[in-house]
Design a protein that fits this description.
Elements: H1 15-24, H2 57-67, H3 70-76, E1 78-80, H4 89-98, E2 102-105, H5 113-128, E3 137-140, E4 142-144, E5 147-148, H6 160-166, H7 169-185, E6 190-191, H8 216-233, E7 236-242, H9 263-268, H10 272-279, E8 284-287, H11 306-317, E9 322-325, H12 331-337, H13 340-350, E10 355-357, H14 366-377, H15 379-399, H16 412-418, H17 422-435, E11 437-441, H18 447-450, E12 453-457, H19 460-469, E13 474-477, H20 484-491, E14 496-501, H21 507-511, E15 519-524, E16 539-542, H22 548-559
Parallel strand pairs: 1-2, 1-10, 2-3, 3-6, 6-7, 7-8, 8-9, 12-13, 12-14, 14-15, 15-16
Antiparallel strand pairs: 4-5, 11-16
Helix pairs in contact: 2-15, 3-15, 6-17, 7-8, 7-17, 8-10, 12-13, 13-14, 14-15, 17-22, 19-22
């Protein structure tokens, strides 16, 4: 995809703007970074074709697959999670005995970043002992912003909606690059990002700031740029949640959401980013557990629908990469299929190439035994699974070999030295500054204009940055157990209240200040959709995450020390309608 160089839709090179923004972000300095060195470890030699052989990916994949049993092929299509910081004995059994193709890292695995890197090395070393020396796909959800499964020492970032507010594909590219570099240091070679769900329904709390915005073309452009950044870092990107999770306020973890839009609307709206990304050869797409009753899929979840995955995604859109299920243990899949085993079988026949399960089943669990039996008894199912295994092998051979590949066994010295990425930290601060959006208001709010200030919020970084901006400000930390009367008591001596809002549950407390005679300013984090619910406030700014950089940038803009050039990436009022791309 070609991007014009001199527009908001183009790859923005921000030296002039950065020269204004960065010095003005008071008291926050970040050092420069060193490049990430890549390394690969070779598996032991056997008489079978080796993954490390210097052969074209497609040809070597066919050669390896021809030597694989049906169980070997099936195992390559499994991606499993485990519980705990260290590898469980059961996940090690699946890797050593079954030779599964991938593992998924969840938030419960990642509190200790160094321990996570050690764990990845242990898992990969076990995988490389197999006859073909095939490494694992090691995947996680590191979207940026709100969704950051790998915590510990990794960067907190402004997130997708901040990128949408800045409007620059260059920001999406660099976000993808720096997030990818941090993952690569940890040995994580696949990321379930970017999220290209549209912010079609502003009541969606599941998607919200995970979206680039409501404009489908802009989401496609920014998604493609993010993918290119991951590619530069050596990490496999995965667009989600196909065909689009943004037009519902329900969560497919608990239920099967139904989205009533007809296919004609989906084609020109939710599917536009996938149509664009398919032309950019994105390596993978995650299928969502979502029902679209006014399409040919009817009540079948898209993740289990041959029409959505084969007819639309493969045949009509022309996507050629991997299709991966969202977690099959989510109710959106199992409630429809009736059991995890049935969901897995339907997922393959629908066109998924990898089935992802967040926990580790027993080795002889029905999900495995039923699929092996189906391969033996049903020629069509056997052919489908082996085709899926071929796609997995081709993807691994394209991305997990060569000088740009993520190292199989992480270098722990680099983990200590390069997380968080210092160069990335400076970029994320500048992105936060470019994305700050004045939604309403009488701004800037200089300290002498504000008078006595009360900061009301629930994030430590909000208070830390706020007190640097307004020395002497009082603090009110609110929670569910503290009521409206208590806020009114704390606000009685204040001239100005700066209220940090992150979700709808904060609105009641904020409304208690209406008519109080105080100047009330809203400091919105995550989705700014709630600002329109309090039109009586004096002013409102939006940042799009609770990363420290976002609070710093927001208060700098509130003071008038930096401009606030961000634009709301969705239309205010009701459902967020698509806008023309900037």
């Amino acid at each position: 995809m070609n991007f014009p160089a001199d527009s908001r839709s183009g790859f923005f090179r921000p030296p002039a703007l950065a020269a204004v923004l960065l010095p003005a972000l008071f008291l926050f300095l970040f050092p420069a970074a060193r490049p990430v060195a890549q390394s690969m470890n070779s598996a032991r030699s056997t008489g079978k074709p080796r993954f490390s052989a210097d052969r074209p990916a497609e040809a070597l994949a066919e050669e390896i697959l021809a030597q694989m049993s049906d169980e070997d092929a099936l195992a390559q299509t499994f991606m499993l999670g485990w519980v705990g910081a260290e590898p469980s004995p059961l996940i090690m059994d699946w890797i050593r005995d079954r030779r599964i193709g991938g593992v998924k890292i969840f938030g419960w695995n990642t509190d200790d970043t160094r321990k996570l890197a050690e764990t990845v090395g242990v898992l990969q070393s076990a995988a490389l002992e197999g006859d073909f020396g095939i490494p694992l796909l090691v995947a996680t959800d590191q979207e940026g912003g709100w969704i950051r499964h790998v915590k510990g020492a990794t960067s907190e970032t402004p997130g997708n909606m901040a990128i949408g507010a800045s409007g620059y594909p260059r920001d999406a590219y660099l976000a993808g690059y720096y997030i990818g570099r941090e993952l690569a240091v940890l040995g994580i070679n696949m990321n379930f990002a970017p999220t290209v769900d549209l912010y079609t329904n502003s009541a969606s709390t599941l998607i919200g700031p995970r979206s680039f915005g409501s404009d489908p073309v802009q989401a496609g452009i920014l998604g493609a740029a993010f993918v290119r950044g991951h590619e530069k870092a050596g990490v496999i990107a995965t667009a989600k949640h196909y065909p689009g999770h943004g037009d519902t306020d329900l969560d497919s973890h608990g239920v099967l959401p139904e989205i009533t839009a007809p296919f004609e609307v989906l084609w020109e709206r939710e599917l536009v980013p996938y149509r664009m990304l398919a032309r950019e050869n994105i390596p993978a797409v995650m299928s969502g557990h979502l029902a679209f009753p006014n399409t040919q899929a009817a009540s079948t979840p898209a993740s289990l629908s041959p029409w959505f995955l084969r007819t639309v995604l493969r045949d009509r859109i022309g996507f050629k990469g991997l299709v991966i299920t969202d977690d099959l243990m989510m109710n959106g899949a199992t409630l429809s299929a009736g059991s995890l085993s049935r969901a897995a079988r339907q997922a393959f026949m629908a066109g998924n190439d990898i089935i992802m399960v967040s926990k580790t089943p027993n080795l002889n669990d029905p999900i495995w035994t039923s699929l092996v039996l189906a391969m033996r008894e049903e020629a069509a199912f056997r052919e489908r699974v082996r085709d899926a295994a071929r796609r997995v092998l081709v993807t691994k051979l394209k991305y997990l070999r060569g000088g740009n590949a993520v190292p199989y066994v992480p270098d722990l010295l680099k983990v200590d030295a390069e997380l968080p990425n210092p160069e990335g930290s400076a970029f994320f601060l500048s992105l936060a500054a470019r994305s700050v959006t004045v939604v309403r208001g009488n701004l800037p709010l200089a300290p002498e204009k504000a008078g006595k200030v009360l900061l009301a919020g629930q994030f430590e970084d909000f208070f830390s940055a706020g007190k640097k901006a307004y020395p002497g400000a009082a603090s009110y930390y609110y929670s569910a157990s503290r009521g409206n009367a208590e806020l009114s008591y704390y606000a009685r001596e204040a001239d100005t209240v700066i209220f940090c809002i992150s979700d709808a549950s904060d609105l009641g407390l904020l409304r208690s200040l209406q008519g109080s005679g105080k100047k009330v300013y809203v400091f919105s984090v995550l989705s700014p959709a709630y600002i329109e619910e309090v039109p009586w406030t004096e002013g409102a700014i939006a940042v799009y995450s609770y990363a420290p950089e976002s609070f710093v940038a927001g208060f700098s803009a509130l003071l008038g020390r930096i401009p606030a050039p961000g634009k709301l990436p969705f239309s205010a009022g009701g459902n967020a309608a698509p806008r023309n791309a900037r």
